[in-house]
Amino acid sequence: MFSLRAFRVRISGLSGCVFIAAISGWLASPAAFGQQPTPAAQTPPASAATTEKLSADQLDSLVAPIALYPDPLLAQVLVASTYPLDIVQGQQWLAKNSTLKGDALVKAAEQQPWDPSVQALVSIPDALKVLSENIKWTVDLGDAFLAQQNEVMDAVQRLRGKAKDSGKLASNEQQTVETKVVEQKTVVVIEPSNPEVVYVPSYSPTVIWGPPVYYPYPPIYYPPYYGGAWIGFGVGIAIGIGISGGWGWGCGWGGNNTININNNNNYVNHHNRQNNTNRTGNSNWQHDAKQRGGAPYKDRGTANKYGGGTRSDRQAQTRQAQNRANAGASNRAGGGSFDRGGAGASNRAGGGSFDRGGSSGSRGGGGGNYGSSSRSGGSAFGGSGSGSHARSSSSRGSSSMGGMSRGGGGGGGRRR
What is the tens place of the pLDDT at every residue in 251-301? Predict the structure, then answer.
C-alpha cells in the first residue's frame, strides 16, 4: 500500500537530480498505480527473436496488384519496396521536376541519393505512383519480400498460373507471356514485347482472381472492366539511356527465386561507381540496410538479419522521448527549481527547497519543516534536502519549534 510518509522518508536524503530520476522511474513503473507488470511489457530475450511470416493466402492478396507486371519491372518494384523512404522522396522530387524528360530526367535522377531501383522508377511514373500513393501496402510488401522472398515469388507464380489458366493472361502487343520450365519448376514468364519500351499493366485483382481472402487489396485505382479487356496498358515509355547496358533487374525463377541485378545497367553502374564498388555482369540482389535510411523493420528476426531496429524499438524510443518532454514540462510548471528551490516562486507560496533547506521560507512559511507545511501549504515532502543544510538552517533558527508556535513561519527570521 502506498504511504506518503514512507515516501517522504525514502526521498528525504536525495539531491535534486537524483530525486528527479527516482520520481520519473517510479511514475514509469506499473507499481506506481497499483498494477503488476504484464508479460507484454517485458523485453523478450535475444534468443526469442523471430520473423513474422504471412500465410500463402495473405501473400497472394499482397502481391496481386503487381503479379502481372513484366518480369524486369516486377523485380525492380519488389526491390524498391524495401526502401520506402526513397520511394516517398522520389515521388516528391518527380513532382517538383516535372519539366524534366527523357535523358535529362535519367541523368538528374541518378544523381539523387536513392537506391538505383527507385532512381529508375522516376522514368516509369505510373509504377512509382502505385508505390508512393499506397505507402502502407508498399511497406508491407517490402517487409514480406525481405522476410519471405522465396514465398513472395511463389505467390506471384500461383497468381500468374491462375490468370493464364482462366484465359485472363496472354501475350499481346505490349508483353509476351510464356510457360517455361526452370530448374524443374514450371513458371509463367512475362517479358516486354519491346525491351526498350515499358508498359505498366493496369488491372483489377478482384476481376482477375476474385475478392481477397485475408489481406485486403490496396486502395489503388483500377480501370473499369470492359468485356474481354482484362488488362489495360497506358502509353509505352521509352527508357532510352536508362537501360543502357540492359535492364537492371530480373527474376531468377528457379529453386531460390532470386532477383538478378545487372551491374552494367546505367543506374546500377553509376551507383556502384559512386560507392567505389567494381562489379560487372549479373549478381544476386542483396538488401542494403544503410540505404533504408533508418526506416524500422517489421520484426526482430528481420532487423537482426540486416542490422537495424524494429517498429517496436522506434515506438519505445518515441514514448521515452515523450516521457522526458512531459517530465521537463511538469518540472517547469510545478513551481520552483530543485537546484534553487528556496529562491523560487514556490517558496514565496510555501513551496520549500530541497537544496537550500527552506532558507527563504520567511516569505510564505515554506521553511521546509512539517509544521510550516501544514499551516502555510509548504512542501508536500517536507524536510531539508540534506543533513548539512538542515543543521545549518537549524543553527540560524529556521527550524525552531518556538518559531513555529509564534508565527508559523519556519525560519530565516532574526532572533529576538
Answer: 999 878 999 999 998 899 888 888 877 777 788 999 999 999 888 999 898
Residue 269, Cβ neighbours under 10 Å: how many? Answer: 20
DSSP string of 66-108, one letter each residue: GTTS-HHHHHHHHHHTT-HHHHHHHHHHHHHTTT--HHHHHHH
* Residue 210, all three cell numbers: 476474385
Alpha carbons 266 and 288: distance in angstroms, whole number: 19
Query: How many residues are listed for the chain in this entry?
Result: 416
Sorted by sequence, the CB contacts under 8 Å of residue 179 that are 6+ apart come out as: 164, 186, 187, 188, 189
Query: Which tens digits make up the pLDDT trace of 4-49?
Result: 444 444 444 444 444 334 434 433 444 443 444 434 434 444 435 6
Which whole-number Å values give the CA distances from 371 to 382, 390, 395, 401, in the listed order? 9, 15, 18, 8
* 54, 307, 127, 182 alpha-carbon torsion, rounded to 10°: -60
DSSP for 201-265, please give it: EE--HHHHH-S-SSSPPP----PPPBTTB-SEE---EE-GGGGTTS-SEEEE-SSS-EEEEETTS
Among 185, 338, 346, smallest CA distance to 256 is for: 185
d(CA 253, CA 142): 19
| pTM score, whole prediction | 0.65
